[in-house]
Write a structure and sequence with these properties.
Layout: E1 2-3, H1 5-20, H2 22-32, E2 41-43, E3 49-51, H3 53-66, H4 71-78, H5 84-105, E4 111-117, E5 124-130, H6 135-161, H7 163-190, E6 211-212, E7 215-216, H8 225-244, H9 249-266, H10 269-291, H11 297-319, H12 321-340, H13 342-360, H14 376-401, H15 410-433, H16 441-451, H17 459-462
Antiparallel strand pairs: 1-2, 2-3, 4-5, 6-7
């Protein structure tokens, strides 16, 4: 095991979290999610695998949560049979057991694309091999279990301390993500990529030179543009929903705008498709709420503005043929040409072999970490089979409907709903390019925020609102001019 310089800094921050508590921990944890190209620790024994700073910080954050009184009681309640957390835990347990046994039970029964470590220095490649147990089964299982731990820790944190600290940390991280994108662009233009070398030390290929239509794709502190854009999208979903509901609109609106610009600057096909789907959802939802008189003024303005912006853009392109040709060329590069490229054909073959493995393993899956795909749905089926799909489906359903927002203060209900929308914004790009069954720590944090006060079923909390959720904060103060939104 080799501790990198950034790993030493990570450990120092972890010690500070233990001293200062989870309030600092959640801020550091969320910001560590943005360091997608960093390695705090490298493990030569596992083929040069890298441990990201986020997973090291998670250990200290969880320790700070467990030091709080009654924290275990709150965690246990998260995993009741009627709670979303129970089904997430079942999914992780099935995934862990499957990773241990399924690659051995079905060894050689299917050919799969999997990540193969070529040297102790971390060189790797995705190759077609007969199904067999490997290091990927270990690492991906650890990441999946970390998702559950992160989910439980964040939910317990909010239940004990209220929404303000976690929601503020999300806004801070969204702003930091945008600033890292700006720094990446400045670094590439004036410093030849040297400024961010310190936080790009993991054993991953850094795709920093890609461009579309002559415009460089922003990657921030990640390895590629799709990862940068995929993280910006849930930040946009969370902050835009808070803005529509009038929850600190000057701040949430600004962060939403920055996150929107980050998605666009990534020029990532998956992120842009996800953005289009989410914008369509906002339009349909807003239109429905307007028809029943339940929309806020800001959401109604967005519904009216969206087709207006598209119309103005169409008129400008009609008057500027050169711009229209450029847009057409960019669209071809982002969507049509990519499907026919070597990378697109290769990713399509990943999914094809993933589907074959799903049936070759009697629909039980080949085990977490056994198969690389290019779609989160195919990854679930190929690695965890029908049992995994059912467990994930129930978890996501309860995430949406597992609490009664009408019994909450408007700000609390708004933050819950914003977190739910952000969770699904995380999944939109993953459905197109997701290579594994791991949700990711950002999704797990947002999911923990979404279920944090879904406690109506607990008698001792159904009569009154927990004190932590009634403490006023500058973040949670609603705009007096805003009306309630569903």
């Amino acid at each position: 095991m080799t501790v990198e310089p950034i790993g030493i800094i990570t450990i120092i921050l972890g010690v500070l979290i233990l001293r200062k508590g989870p309030g600092l921990g959640i801020v550091v944890l969320l910001c560590s999610f943005l360091l997608g190209a960093a390695a705090a620790v490298k493990l030569p024994a596992l083929g040069g695998s890298s441990i990201a700073p986020a997973y090291v910080i998670l250990l200290f954050y969880v320790a700070s949560i467990l030091r709080m009184p009654d924290s275990l009681a709150h965690v246990v309640r998260l995993f009741g049979v009627r709670e979303a957390g129970f089904w997430l835990l079942c999914y992780a347990v099935y995934g862990a057991l499957g990773a241990l046994f399924l690659p051995r039970v079905f060894a050689g029964e299917a050919f799969v694309f999997s990540l193969q470590r070529l040297s102790a220095g971390g060189d790797s490649a995705i190759t077609l091999t007969p199904l067999a147990f490997g290091t990927g089964n270990i690492t991906q299982t650890v990441y999946l279990l970390a998702d559950v731990v992160c989910f439980a820790a964040v939910a317990a944190h909010v239940r004990m301390r209220g929404f303000s600290a976690v929601a503020t940390a999300v806004l801070f991280a969204g702003s930091a993500h945008f600033l890292l994108g700006v720094l990446d662009s400045v670094d590439h233009s004036f410093a030849a990529g040297e400024m961010l070398t310190f936080i790009r030390n993991a054993n991953y290929a850094i795709l920093a030179e890609g461009d579309v239509g002559g415009i460089r794709r922003t990657i921030g502190a990640f390895t590629e543009a799709s990862a940068f854009g995929g993280v910006a999208l849930p930040f946009f979903a969370f902050t835009s929903e808070l803005y529509f509901r009038g929850i600190r609109p000057w701040l949430t609106g600004l962060v939403a705008l920055c996150s929107l610009l980050a998605v666009i600057a990534s020029l990532s096909s998956s992120a842009l498709v996800g953005l289009a789907i989410y914008a369509g959802f906002i339009f349909v939802r807003g239109s429905a709420l307007m028809l029943v008189g339940a929309s806020t003024a800001r959401l109604s303005s967005a519904v009216v503005a969206l087709p207006s912006v598209l119309l103005v853009a169409a008129l400008v392109l009609a008057l500027k043929p050169d711009a229209a040709f450029w847009i057409d060329d960019v669209a071809d590069q982002l969507f049509l040409d990519k499907l026919e490229s070597d990378s697109g054909i290769e990713r399509a073959s990943w999914n094809e072999y993933g589907w074959d493995a799903f049936f070759d393993t009697s629909m039980l899956g080949a085990g977490v970490g056994s198969i690389r795909t290019s779609s989160y749905l195919v990854a679930i089926l190929a690695n965890t089979g029908l049992p995994g799909l059912v467990l994930v489906g129930v978890f996501l359903a309860l995430l949406c409907i597992g609490h009664n927002s009408t019994r909450r203060p408007r700000v609390t209900a708004g933050m819950e709903r914003a977190a739910v929308f952000a969770c699904f914004a995380c999944l939109l790009p993953a459905m197109l390019v997701g290579s594994s069954v791991v949700f990711g720590l950002l999704f797990s944090t947002l999911a923990g925020l979404a279920v944090a006060t879904g406690q109506d079923r607990f008698p001792h909390q159904s009569r009154t609102e927990p004190r932590a959720f009634t403490v006023p904060s500058r973040l949670s103060r609603p705009d007096p001019a805003a009306t309630g939104a569903a």
